[in-house]
Amino acid sequence: MPPTATTALRGDTAIDALRAHDRLRCVEYDRRLRAHCDRDTIHACIAELREWLDLDEVLLLNASLHYGDQHTIAIGHDRAWLGLYMREGFAHVDPIVDAVVRGDRFFPRRPLIRWRPDRPSEREPVANPLMRRLIEAAADFKRPAYGYAGGEIADGRFLLLSAPSKTKCPDDRRLRVLNALFPSLMRALAKQPASAQNASLSPRETHMLELLAEGLSDAEIAHALTISQATVRFHLQNLFLKMRARNRCHVIALAYRHGYLAPN
């Protein structure tokens, strides 16, 4: 069931609705994001935001409307889940994406599964096979069912804020803080570049980037992926060409800069 949008709070109205301490912090975040909208500043802000509001994770996504390229800035997120989400094309059935496309800018997240009130132990049937796959995968990865999300479409790009939580918030404090910061985060996110040269990496190349970032040698990568070292070197050369990297260190740096890898 698509999430229901909350009543929008914008600009000064959103800030005024906060408690004094929260209001001061939001004004400071807005000032920082206006002065420096680079990736490092955004990452530092959402890391502090996650701790401040006790969220499981905070993720910002700037993607083309067809998800051919993307720029991700996240803290606390599951990289394996995000990789699966993109590879499987779950965005095409995700109720959160659907809500943003309909024009809902900020709203509470809802569980993907609806339970029948007359039979609490049974799920309502899901006809769409991709939606069934999304529900099963979300359960396998133990994805949080609650929290907040929002986004907008601007200049052919899909901008998303996702702040999931495993439990419902007992009050609307997190809602008000995130809603007040939403315009600042979207503005900073819109200024982030797309992925390096719009390169499209295969799942194996993405996995190899993760192993490279962990400092594994060619032999260790070959063992982890059950392929030969010659195949490892072949994929490395493809990565260097696609991302225009000079060496292993450079390709890792580019991967972090352009959102293929996210700092933990």
As a percent range, the share of strand residues is 15-25%
Distance between the termini: 31 Å
Largest sheet: 5 strands, antiparallel
Placed side by side, the strands forming the largest sheet appear as 2-1-7-6-3
Describe this structure in words.
The two termini are 31 Å apart. The strands form 2 sheets. The chain has a 5-stranded antiparallel beta sheet with strand order 2-1-7-6-3, with helices on both faces. A two-stranded antiparallel ribbon has the order 4-5. The longest helix is centred in the last third of the chain and has 18 residues, at 173-190. It contains 11 helices and 7 strands. The model is unreliable at 1-11 and 115-121 (pLDDT under 50). It has 2 domains: 11-194, Beta-Lactamase (2-Layer Sandwich); 197-257, Arc Repressor Mutant, subunit A. The chain has helices at residues 11-16, 20-35, 39-53, 79-88, 95-102, 129-140, 173-190, 203-213, 218-225, 229-243, 248-257; strands at 58-64, 70-75, 106-108, 115-116, 119-123, 146-154, 157-165.
Salient structural properties:
single chain, 264 residues, alpha+beta, Beta-Lactamase, Arc Repressor Mutant, subunit A, 2 domains, five-stranded antiparallel sheet, two-stranded antiparallel ribbon, 11 helices, 7 strands, globular, disordered N terminus
Give the secondary structure arrangement, pairings included:
Blueprint: H1 11-16, H2 20-35, H3 39-53, E1 58-64, E2 70-75, H4 79-88, H5 95-102, E3 106-108, E4 115-116, E5 119-123, H6 129-140, E6 146-154, E7 157-165, H7 173-190, H8 203-213, H9 218-225, H10 229-243, H11 248-257
Antiparallel strand pairs: 1-2, 1-7, 3-6, 4-5, 6-7
Helix pairs in contact: 2-7, 9-10, 10-11
